[in-house]
Amino acid sequence: MKLYHGSNIVVSEPRIDFSRANLDFGRGFYATSIRSQAERWAQRKTLMEGSGAAIVSEFELCDSTSLKTLEFKEANEDWVDFVCHCRRGGTQYKDYDLIVG
């Protein structure tokens, strides 16, 4: 599966040590399968930082079957509860290698 990450710098290797706390799915490396979404985020990040250029980095996720995965198929009550928990500083996201939704 091809994934895209929008930023104001080239990202050659996914790393979580640059992630902010209290995000929707906790600290992590955020990517999307929708290139246009990554392009919009790259433009926003460039404006917010006031430096760099809007860049979309591409990654190939080859085999996710060995990863402990949490998937939200829709923005339902479970999704809202999880996002609110993470935004309040909760650490439930640490139970998973990959969160999709």
Structure description:
With 101 residues, this protein is α+β, with helices and mostly antiparallel strands. Helix content is 26%, strand content 18%. The chain is built from two helices and four strands. It has helices at residues 35-49, 77-87, and strands spanning 2-7, 55-60, 69-71, 98-100. The strands form two sheets. A two-stranded antiparallel ribbon has the order 1-2. The chain has a two-stranded parallel sheet with strand order 3-4. β3 (69-71), α2 and β4 (98-100) form a beta-alpha-beta unit. The longest helix is centred in the middle third of the chain and has 15 residues, at 35-49. The chain is globular. 12% of the residues are buried. The model has no long low-confidence stretch (mean pLDDT 94).
How large is the share of residues in beta strands? 15-25%
Mean pLDDT comes to 94
Q: Helix content range of the residues, please?
A: 25-40%
Structural class label: alpha+beta
H-E order: EHEEHE
Number of helices: 2
Would you count the extended β strands for me? 4
Biggest sheet: strands, sense, closure?
Answer: 2 strands, antiparallel
End-to-end Cα distance, whole Å, is: 15 Å
- How large, in whole angstroms, is the Cα Rg? 14 Å
Q: Write down the overall geometry.
A: globular
Strand numbers in spatial order across the main sheet: 1-2
Any low-confidence stretches, pLDDT <50, length ≥5?
none
